[in-house]
């Protein structure tokens, strides 16, 4: 399994944790992604629903039995664009 596939996959339903952020109150925030926009992830935590910007953050993501670190800048696109771009990046990397 290629870790890079996470860039071209659906994030809704994935467990995530914010590990780096310019906003210290976001660091350590963890839960399940319930919605995604071009610039944000909506994360359902144990207590509430939080909206976190993608840019400038680093996320720990539980993906297909692995734990990965993903820079938010790499996923800061509309979900459908991110999936298309991710597939193109993976194809280029295999050449």
TrEMBL record:
Keywords per UniProt: Cytoplasm, Endonuclease, Hydrolase, Nuclease, tRNA processing
InterPro entries: RNase_P/MRP_Rpp29-subunit (IPR016848), RNase_P/MRP_Rpp29_sf (IPR036980), RNP1 (IPR023538), Rof/RNase_P-like (IPR023534), Rpp29/RNP1 (IPR002730)
GO molecular function, one term: ribonuclease P activity
GO biological process terms on file: rRNA processing; tRNA 5'-leader removal
Top-level division of the source organism's lineage: Archaea
Main location, first listed in the record: cytoplasm
EC category: hydrolase
GO (cellular component) term, any one: cytoplasm
Catalytic activity: Endonucleolytic cleavage of RNA, removing 5'-extranucleotides from tRNA precursor
tRNA processing as UniProt keyword: yes
EC number: 3.1.26.5
Cell location: Cytoplasm
Functional description taken from the UniProt entry: Part of ribonuclease P, a protein complex that generates mature tRNA molecules by cleaving their 5'-ends.
Assembly and oligomerization: Consists of a catalytic RNA component and at least 4-5 protein subunits.
Family: Belongs to the eukaryotic/archaeal RNase P protein component 1 family.
Name under which the protein is recorded: Ribonuclease P protein component 1
Gene coding for it: rnp1
């Amino acid at each position: 399994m290629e870790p890079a596939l996470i860039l071209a996959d659906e994030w809704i339903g994935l467990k995530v944790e914010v590990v780096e952020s310019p906003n210290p109150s976001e660091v350590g925030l963890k839960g399940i992604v319930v919605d995604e926009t071009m610039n944000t992830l909506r994360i359902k935590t144990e207590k509430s629903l939080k909206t976190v910007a993608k840019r400038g953050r680093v996320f720990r993501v539980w993906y297909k039995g692995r734990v990965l670190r993903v820079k938010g800048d790499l996923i800061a696109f509309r979900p459908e664009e991110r999936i298309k771009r991710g597939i193109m990046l993976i194809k280029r990397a295999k050449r």
